Amino acid sequence: MAVEEIHAEMVSSVWKVLVAPGAEVAAGDTLVILESMKMEIPVLSERAGTIGELHVVEGEVLQEGDLIATVVPA
């Protein structure tokens, strides 16, 4: 299976990072929480696996389409 790439869906800032590279995640787990227009937006993994790379830090401003993380399938 291919590596899952998780991208920002809108301009937002990274409010909280909940995972680190190497962490095991299940489908539906929250990886990071973004903030946009005073709303908290959880970013979820679509499949189970291991966090391969994390491309964001708390406080960073993201543009639509920016890469947040990769998940290597279990």
Descriptive notes:
- This is Acetyl-CoA carboxylase.
- InterPro entries: Biotin_Carboxyl_Carrier/Decarb, Biotin_lipoyl, Single_hybrid_motif.
- It holds the Pfam family Biotin_lipoyl.
- It comes from Modestobacter caceresii.
- The chain is mainly beta and 74 residues long.
- It has strands at 4-7, 12-17, 24-25, 30-36, 39-44, 49-54, 61-62, 67-73.
- It is elongated, with a radius of gyration of 11 Å.
- The protein starts with a strand and ends with a strand.
- The model has no long low-confidence stretch (mean pLDDT 96).
Percent of sequence in beta strands:
over 45%
The dominant shape is: elongated
Structural class: mainly beta
CATH class: Mainly Beta
Oligomer: single chain
CATH architecture: Beta Barrel
Mean pLDDT: 96
Order of helices and strands: EEEEEEEE
Into which percent range does the helicity of residues fall? Answer: under 10%
| Rg, alpha carbons | 11 Å
Q: What gap, in angstroms, lies between the N and C termini?
A: 9 Å
Low-confidence stretches: none
How many domains comprise the coordinates?
Answer: 1
Reported by name, the CATH topology is: OB fold (Dihydrolipoamide Acetyltransferase, E2P)
